[in-house]
Write a structure and sequence with these properties.
Layout: H1 15-33, H2 39-49, H3 57-66, H4 73-85, E1 89-92, E2 97-100, E3 114-119, E4 125-129, H5 131-143, E5 153-157, H6 160-168
Parallel strand pairs: 3-5
Antiparallel strand pairs: 1-2, 3-4
Helix pairs in contact: 1-2, 2-4, 3-4
């Protein structure tokens, strides 16, 4: 079964297959780039892949401790730093949290600029390409003599499930 359309993770899908495919893509990318995906880095990524939800570093640390893996905040932050640096995980500024990238290298090692749709209720996060919006940001910035070097666009709202609960509740 193929991964769900990463632009709509709110749809029902085989999440085990989704996680398995993402881990395979990350492992392949690390091999191509001669990067070391240590057991801790891999487990941190697996924890983030368990749901399409943003998680804070301390929440990840707590999960590791529940599994019997002793660790301190610096070890989790170092693992997250590696994963973010290489494009396998995104840091969500608004939530001060992290999420696994839904577009893991798609056959290339090029980075992309995502647009995040964050559910205020369940904290699920969908990732979509910034695309045309990125070009509009560049034009607006350029008109003001500003050169954008990086963009993080986060949109807060309600996912279909939470919106349905609200409407039917």
């Amino acid at each position: 079964m193929a991964m769900p359309d990463p632009e709509n993770i709110f749809e029902h899908h085989d999440h085990r297959q989704c996680r398995h495919e993402a881990m395979r893509q990350v492992s392949d990318s690390c091999a191509r780039q001669h990067l070391r995906l240590t057991p801790l880095r891999a487990r941190v990524l697996e924890i983030l892949l368990e749901s399409h939800r943003a998680m804070g570093a301390y929440e990840i640390l707590e999960r590791l401790r529940e599994e019997g893996q002793a660790g301190q905040p610096p070890t989790v932050y170092r693992a997250l730093e590696f994963l973010v640096t290489h494009g396998f995980v995104h840091r969500l500024e608004r939530l001060n949290a992290f999420m696994a990238c839904c577009h893991v290298n798609r056959g290339t090692d090029k980075r992309h600029e995502p647009l995040f749709l964050i559910c205020n209720s369940c904290r699920k996060v969908a990732e979509a390409p910034l695309g045309v919006l990125g070009r509009k940001i560049d034009r607006q910035a350029g008109a003001m003599g500003f050169v954008a070097q990086s963009r993080v666009v986060e949109v807060l709202g309600l996912c279909p499930a939470c919106r349905g609960e609200l409407e039917n509740g």
